[in-house]
Amino acid sequence: MPRPRSPLSRLLTVLLAGLLAGLVLAVAALPGNLLAGVTAKAALGAYDELPAALRTPATPQRSYLYANDGTTLLTTFYDVNRADVPLAEIAPVMRQAIVAAEDRRFYSHGGADLRGLARAVVANLTGGSAQGGSTLTMQYVRNVLKTDPSRTAEERQAATEQTVGRKLQEIRYATALEDSLSKDEILNRYLNIAYFGSGAYGVAAASQRYFGKAPADLTVGEAALLAGLVQSPDEYSPIDGDAEAALTRRGYVLDAMVATGAITEAQAAQARAEKTTLRPTAQPNGCVATRTDDAGFFCDYLRRWWLEQPAFGATAEEREQALRRGGYRVVTSLDPDVQATAVSQARKVYADDDARALPIAAVEPGTGRVLAMAVNRRYGVAENETVNPLISGGGSVEGYQAGSTFKMFTMLAALEAGKPLATGFDAPSRLPTRYAAEGEGSCDGRWCPANANPERMDGYRMMWDGFGRSVNTYFVWLAEQVGEDKVVEMAQRLGITFRAESDAAFAADDAANWGAFTLGVAATTPLDLANAYATVAAEGTYCAPTPVVSVTAPDGTKVPVGQPSCKRVLEADVARAATDAARCPVGQQSAYGQCNGGTASGVNRIVGRPVAGKTGSSEKNATETFVGFTPQVAVAGIAANPDDPSDAVGAAVQSEVIDAVARTIRAAVDGQPVRDFTAPSRELAGNPQRPEPKPAPRPEEPRREREIPSDILRWLQNRRG
Asked: Compositional bias of type Basic and acidic residues: which residue ranges (predicted)?
């Protein structure tokens, strides 16, 4: 509760005019005084209201990023390393030490200590050590004004100018604060903002920085050492400054604590005798300092997401400041176990210093929450490190060709157009199309895609085994039936972003003629691909990918960001039908028993529960991709050389990519209930009747010439005409 206004406080305004002359003499002895031009009017101007920062402190605090369990710290962001703690969480000896060291009459003055000011005047005029005569309350005022993030740099600098005007302003603000806040409230605010050296602002950061403990656990000796630092934090810091000077200053504080009755002589002697054990603890700062299985790429994705959220400011600069100074508690969507598995799997395929990479992303269907972002790289700027968003794309990273995984979008477009899974086509080894082409891959001047393995792929196919065996000619034919522009639109609807200029131009201006799109020639990223397949897993509900579960402001209020942003983009039955066909590639069986071979049949054994997915190989095996999903998670991995697309990873790595993704899926669903996929309707499945095998041709008998009746001959001639 605010204390009654003291007689000193009531008389202070009158005394200020008389005190001004003495203050002029006092500050004249301080280094760098800027008295020129200061007038009595400026110094004694009216201050009817306190600045907002003093009424409601907006001191910069670090923001904390946690994994989705809310306890695993990923990293912190800060310009100033500090965090507020209530007075009850600060050891009483720490409170007593700071009062003894900086302001022994703190509990008796009204904000400005005239005796202290007079002592400072005498000391400065007689050549003693320079003194400012500032109380804890005045120091608090100065600290707030020089760190207030809402003020300009010039205003913050003016808060420490050695002028009479500034000193008087400080006194007026201090007395106003004492009229409205209790002593404990002021002390708590002071302890949370004071600088203790070595980058630590506030007692919570200082106790962690020097001793690796919470401020509630400080001993007498530790509290005295910290209290001694605030007078000259850089000089006395036992880490970065003069350790002997810090111990000497600690002795002064212990004597002061005895003088104020806070401790006894015996306690002071015991504290002096104790060996000071420092446990320097550096607070992680930014994405390069993440602590959890190289989550730097996820952290970078979160930061990019943060800079796009209007809730944190009108501009990207304001949002960056909010992250570094706002004191937010961010519970991210990152699952530590899934992340650890994805990282280890990526590094099993390629070493950290390999030019080739396996970026992997995991997404939760129905929420869009990103559970893992891993790659065989270290996030950073040192040699063999990178800060490029290899998993999510952006900046110079356009993505990688994902091959036949794009056949999913053709299948969805066909199903949506009313074509059932049983839609059949006798797929040839090569399929001449309507698109002009020259050189390799052309047939008589037309683009002529081929099946990778004619023995396993050619013949009558439906969507089930066309998808399971990855039959190129079937899906190019199917895309022609539906319309290539419908396939491109379907991919975009499910979140595929065209970051390459050529891809974006094709999609915008000539999608109807993008015949090769179904074969995955457009660049994408593991995150986009995983999220697109997560939409299928969620039975047609698309959710924008998000890296957070919750964001809490320093006052405990929830910031309305990061909640699932979802919409239906497919009929549930369409998504179920596509999922039914996607059981074929991974060695499982569709609800209609139509799977007869797959390109990733080992996934069934690894995951051990209902799962679906698709492999993809780009031209000449430049990249190898696998994306798989259950109702609870979708995971995609793309093996590529991010810096050299001409460096083909080769077909041999496909099995390793499949294995890495499958094991990441298994880690994600471990401990979760087994959920099956819902079978599609009979209407969308169609009538899966395959034609009878054609009998072997019999030897031709000699043909007998027969006369064509005249009426039929005339009819044929008319037809030719």
From this structure: 691-709
